[in-house]
Specification:
This protein is globular. The chain is α/β, with parallel strands linked by helices and 234 residues long. The protein has helices spanning 18-24, 67-80, 90-98, 120-123, 186-191, 193-198, 203-231; strands at 2-8, 27-33, 49-52, 85-88, 103-114, 117-118, 137-145, 152-156, 164-167, 171-174.
Length: 234
């Protein structure tokens, strides 16, 4: 049976639509909880697919969160072997760092729904299912990263030029959040209440946008990741 491991940094920032998708495709999948489970003990080849999920900490803050160093070491070895690896938000930033790129605070927080602008490489990739004519996407980050050397830029926004990239055959990284399910985002509004208040964002407005735009993203994310897994033979 195919296997997948997802490194989770917050209980409510989970696999979302990807969990049922992996189950349908015959994966046995599990979470490793960052800061609790032994990430250092995970062999880079141990799973057919590794997913590194989001979280509110910086990819450069291993002095405060030592488990990040374990994640980086894991990603360096896994990416060097060109094994199927998916990064979302913090996960994408960690992948960028593991590939030698710089991660740093962006010009402003990008929180809310906004379509992606696909590059030519993006339009010829599974990200074609995330075309702005088909769906918007949820953004929730303050940091950004330089594009790693050798990576293929797939998508941008006006505020964040590096929204998605591919590297090698097996790596795909999203700064944004294609995996979210709108009916589960209430946990985000609670868990990130202080961040939303500090940014002056309206929870009722964000909730309404999520309920309106989320169902299309769920469909299109499923199609995108289905295509990507198929390309990888998974």
């Amino acid at each position: 049976m195919k296997t997948a491991v997802a490194i989770r940094h917050l209980a409510f920032e989970d696999l979302g639509t990807l969990g049922p998708l992996l189950s349908r495709r015959g994966f046995a999948w599990r979470y490793l909880e960052a800061g609790i489970d032994d990430i250092a003990g995970l062999e880079p080849h141990a799973a057919d697919l590794l997913v590194v999920l989001g979280g509110p900490i910086g990819a450069y803050e291993e002095a405060y969160y030592p488990f990040l160093a374990d994640e980086l070491r894991l990603l360096v070895r896994r990416l060097a072997a060109d094994l199927p690896t998916l990064g979302i938000c913090l996960g994408a930033q960690l992948m960028a760092r593991a590939l030698g790129a710089r991660v740093y605070p962006g010009p402003a927080k990008e929180i809310g729904w906004k379509p992606l602008s696909l590059t030519p490489a993006g339009r010829s990739s599974p990200l074609v299912h995330l075309d702005p004519e088909l769906t918007s996407i949820l953004h929730w980050h303050g940091d950004t990263f330089d594009l790693p050397q050798g990576a293929r830029l797939l998508a941008s926004t006006d505020l964040c030029p590096h929204q998605a990239f591919a590297w090698g055959r097996g790596a795909l990284a999203f700064q944004c959040h294609p995996e979210v399910r709108s009916r589960e985002l209430e946990r985000w509004y609670i868990g990130h209440a202080a961040e939303l208040a500090a940014a002056g964002l309206s929870v009722p407005r964000l909730r309404a946008e999520s309920l309106r735009l989320g169902p299309a993203l769920e469909r299109q994310c499923t199609r995108c990741v289905e295509d990507w897994l198929t390309q990888l033979g998974l």
